[in-house]
Amino acid sequence: MEDGAFEDSDCRRVLSIQSHVVHGYVGNKSATFPLQVLGFDVDPINSVQFCNHTEYAVCQGQVLDSDDLEVLYSGLKKNGIANYSHLLTGYIGSKSFLMAVKDIILDLKKTNPKLVYVCDPVMGDNGHLYVPEDLLSVYKEHIVPNADVVIPNQFEAELLTDVKITDMDSARVAMKKLHDMGAKLVVISSSDLGSDETLIGLASSSIGAKPVFLRIDIPRFPIELTGTGDLFAATLLAWTHRHPDDLKLAIEKVVATMQHVLRRTLSYTEQISKAGKPITAADKELRLIQSRKDIENPKLCVTAVDL
Amino acid sequence: MDHVDNDVLGGCCRVLSIQSHVVSGYVGNKSATFPLQVLGFDVDPVNSVQFSNHRGYIGSKSFLMAVKDVILDLKKTNSKLTYVCDPVMGDHGKLYVPEELLSVYKEHIIPNADIVTPNQFEAEILTGVKITDIDSAKVAIEKLHNMGAKTVVISSSDLGSDEILIGLASTTTGKRPMSLRIDIPKFPGEFRGTGDLFTATLLAWTWRHPDDLKLAVEKVVSTMQHVIRRTLSYVEHLSQAGKPVSMQHRELRLIQSIRDIENPLLCITAVDL
């Protein structure tokens, strides 16, 4: 990577507020390495430090509360180093923490009106809420209105907009509502609108003279993996920054990255099965390190369609 | 360069790294993790602290004793584990951790370390040997080997000159035991996180070249030279543009140095002693 344009690195500084797991790849562990490999300086605030993600037999560690978050952020401010081009947030587990995140968003935007806030409003999936209910109103009233990019799954899009998504038309209605709420770019990273083999992703941008609306048909993998949403959000941040006027290309690169990482991870689990061993949660961790070349320069393998 | 495919190798490329985490900047786990990941290692970082930015080293005896328990347990589970220990205690004659850590390092930590990377001051306090020349440095290194460390790298010493700092490396392990000296051009100014980067890349390159400490050390020092030179260029660029240079500007340009980390162009030679 050329270091010629020194100023360029100032456009690629991300504050990322997510969980940290010692082992495995979710939250900041899933987001940081890809962003760094793509040339971003990442400042991770770890909202928790757990030994691993919650799908293991045991999950232990420490949690940051809203006061701790304020202490960290104010330390950055006092040193004059809270200078970011991007903010990235994912899973947040409590209302008080989310409200503290809201204060950070507002403060960062006051300092830098051009800040791009990429928000994954993690609340649940497949009809099942896995955060406290009181987070929903905070997302609706305070977070999404300040988000530049929002990446809900179908369930989260429905919760945020009260629109039941049953087909492309209702999906477009929900996405328009998210635009009206304030988000300039809306990506529904996964939906049930496809089939057993394919999941449909949708992206809509209200930036620029011509709104863009895209659909991308993504081959499903026969395995449930964790950390994929966090990887999606991080690579979306990177590729929309790299291709600010070409959402189609950005989305295709994000989805291609996901495909390569997932395929590599699936292969690894298949090797283990073939050797006659049972597949553990540890075996299913995303093969991120091994996928570095794909993250840096993903070979396109899926095409998005302009609707 | 070949991208090592860990899928085939299975478990040998996984590092447990217990260091500080800073939100902003590159010291501790922030300095160590990215280079190791870029070199193909899965890194499991246990963050001993989470600070907004660096502010000097903090250590406690109780934490170090807990680390000792982790080392012993890991070695029980995997006798082939390689423990790389940077015994951070101070520099230039000054201790910046509580004094009680010294005996814990001497009695419990160093005896279980495979690779140890003290600076000159740390080597002196661990061994009781005053280092005034290459011979006394070799005595100190020999003592560290006797304490249990198979590979000893004195990452920096005052034995050089204003322009050059002398590093020393010695290993009693592998097919080629050797003792080396490497003369490293100094850079103007202080940069934080360099020791952590040094130790992380030493872990990677000694793993990659288990029987060639000379090549491993040359790659480590070359990496350091490229990263520091890039960081210094950035600082100079700002000065020339008439902008004030803050501490943030002096953070190691690690991200920008990814290619040098992956495949450092050798720019320095180690000499067999």
Describe the structure.
The complex is a heterodimer of chains A (307) and B (273). With 307 residues, chain A is of the alpha/beta class. Chain A has ten helices and twelve strands. Chain A has helices spanning 6-10, 27-37, 66-78, 95-111, 135-143, 154-161, 168-181, 228-242, 247-274, 292-296; strands spanning 13-21, 41-50, 61-63, 86-89, 116-119, 124-125, 128-129, 149-150, 185-188, 198-205, 212-219, 304-306. In chain A, strands 3-2-1-4-5-8-9-10-11-12 form a ten-stranded mixed sheet, with helices on both faces. Chain A has a two-stranded antiparallel sheet with strand order 6-7. Chain B is built from nine helices and ten strands. In chain B, the strands form three sheets. Chain B has a six-stranded mixed sheet, sandwiched between helices. In chain B, helix 2 (28-38) packs parallel to helix 7, helix 3 runs parallel beside helix 4 and helix 5 packs across helix 6. Chain B is globular. The model of chain B is unreliable at 1-10 (pLDDT under 50). Classes of the chains: A alpha/beta (307), B alpha/beta (273). The interface between A and B is large, with 39 and 37 residues.
SSE diagram, text form:
The complex is a heterodimer of chains A (307) and B (273).
Chain A: H1 6-10, E1 13-21, H2 27-37, E2 41-50, E3 61-63, H3 66-78, E4 86-89, H4 95-111, E5 116-119, E6 124-125, E7 128-129, H5 135-143, E8 149-150, H6 154-161, H7 168-181, E9 185-188, E10 198-205, E11 212-219, H8 228-242, H9 247-274, H10 292-296, E12 304-306
Parallel strand pairs in A: 1-2, 1-4, 4-5, 5-8, 8-9
Antiparallel strand pairs in A: 2-3, 6-7, 9-10, 10-11, 11-12
Chain B: H1 6-9, E1 14-22, H2 28-38, E2 42-51, H3 61-77, E3 84-85, E4 90-91, E5 94-95, H4 101-109, E6 115-116, H5 120-127, H6 134-147, E7 151-154, E8 164-171, E9 178-185, H7 194-208, H8 213-240, H9 258-262, E10 270-272
Parallel strand pairs in B: 1-2, 3-6, 6-7
Antiparallel strand pairs in B: 4-5, 7-8, 8-9, 9-10
